[in-house]
Amino acid sequence: MKQITLLSMAAMAALSAQAQSQRPNIVYIMTDDHTAQALSAYGKSHIQTPNLDQIAQEGVLFRNSFVANSLSGPSRACMLTGKHSHINGFTNNEHGIFDGSQQTMPKLLQQAGYQTALIGKWHLVSEPTGFDHWDILIGQGEYYNPIFHHQDGSKSVEKGYCTNVITDKAINWMENRDKERPFILFVHHKACHRNWLPELKYLREYEDQTFEKPDNFWDTYEGRVAAQQQEMAIASNHDMDLAYDTKAYLPGDQTRLSGAYVNYVERLEPELKKQYWTFYDSLSCDFKRQNLQGRDLVEWKYQRYMRDYAKVTRSLDDNVGRLMAYLRENGMLENTLVVYTSDQGFYMGEHGWFDKRFMYEESLSTPLLMRLPDGYMRRGEITDMVQNIDYAPTFLEMAGVKVPSDIQGKSLVPLLKGEKTIGKWRDAIYYHFHEYPAEHAVKRHYGVRTERYKLIHFYNDIDTWELYDLQEDPTEMKNVYDDPAYAKVRKQMHKKLEQMQKMYKDPIEETIASK
Ligand code: SGN
Ligand code: CA
Fold it and tell me: Could you tell me the CA-to-CA distances from 355 to 153, 234, 358 in Å, in that order?
């Protein structure tokens, strides 16, 4: 690493100021739990996201974009290092502390002369390293008047709605940066994370909209043991008692005056708080009057979930527009790579769920849009399978920094340049989820996904295998692992899995034995 530093410093010194300024800036916008089903450029969304769609229209949309481990901290660690969780060490949110002394992409860019800044959600417990400037939320952060942890160690409440505050800080940092040098700016939103508290101006938005339920909303999880044992169902885990998710309580009942939910709302100024409670009081009265039971109650909860999620997404889209307008107005777009992604995908009622974690499509996937700087010709949709471990080598290559050989991801540059990749790109991706026992009770599992098939092994206190034919069964309702018609595919997929575990050095037998 030292050698790379010296080399890149020397290389940098040799570059004229003009040549240096041609190295692209990178604006990396990462949201939390924003999923492709809620982003209209992906085609299936009931929620319109015009500003995000514009990035896709002017740039590229990755149709097959995946994470390596569908959870916040682990996903962020994969992105920063370009390595799978078992290598970068941050395998789960509950027990992880990111080892900030390891090689990371921001550090390598910093050593190569980039200005590096991080604003918003961090969630890796240890203090950020490799950033000239950082200003982060504490843990999950808050939607209203969020508390920021500043680089000098101090903490303060920043007035406003979290998504707006993060964007203000990002723009402010760009305004005050050294304009002679390229930069990478990480803009990490809290939105659209649970429990979906809207910006007050959007409190009433989407309330007249009825969201269509996915076809497999009433899934009974036949043939899928881990799915039977999860705790992330809208029906039973989207809580009512403390109104945390639904925001409905029995008026007159004081439960709303306690719990995490109320503490979050209490952060608002008195006038805004009044507006907030007025709206949800009337909603709660209406809910009480209806006295819903059984499936009607679950459907009602689903609409509540979708509406609040949509409101939060609306502010997010506005703010992406604001950031893009800044880049446009300042003539920066030609020389800036803008990346939009999320730390993972999310269930919007598919299988009856909210949350993520599973290797099933909705949470294995993550939205990925890019607006490319001059010189990168590709436009439109890219269907090659990409993963969040690919971002680090991509940014390094674009910045002219040699990609260290221990990075496991692949640079996306050939795809962005529009080079022919048929037969040259990867034919499978590897996934490993490690957080169990934990909230939502999703068992540990690993697996491999090819263009058509997916093999998953759930281990820990169960030991079950699942195989899906994504062409015949895109919503993953039918586990064909024991179907004789798939015996050959099953064998091939096992072989592929073994190859990938070897290639990525995931010591799976040891891992299972130690659990
Ligand atoms: C919190 C949420 C969970 C969520 C995890 C991880 N519960 O614990 O629903 O799965 O974060 O999310 S909450 O009651 O605190 O809202 S992650 O995106 O940060 O990994
Ligand atoms: Ca997340």
Answer: 32, 10, 9
